[in-house]
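Section 5.1 Outputs to date
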Amino acid sequence: MPGTVGSFVTVVALWLIPFTQATLLGTFVVVTLLGIWAGERTERMLRVKDPGVIVIDEVAGMLLSVVTLPRTLPVLLTAFVLFRIFDTWKPFPARQSQSLPGGFGVMVDDLFAGLYTLLVLVAARAAFGLH
């Protein structure tokens, strides 16, 4: 449940904050780097692999899922649903990437979910001529 909440809060922020393309990309990079650092520290402190209290990975994944897209309500809601599906399903190589060490292992499966979401949305927009 924390992952869904973190993803939803990110969607709300993406809807409300007037990011430019550059600031959204910069925010994604900063959140990802902070997530790797924080994930590493949190795992060591709690002595648990990818503890559920970490949601910065969902934030980074959601940011990636729309980084090149217009942040309209239909795009954001579709991205949210697809991201949660991919994050839960963890298609190859997302599931396998969780075994990577430390904060990188915490972050990378959600980055794959965000990338898969972005690719599906870009393909759907191209196929249906949506701009």
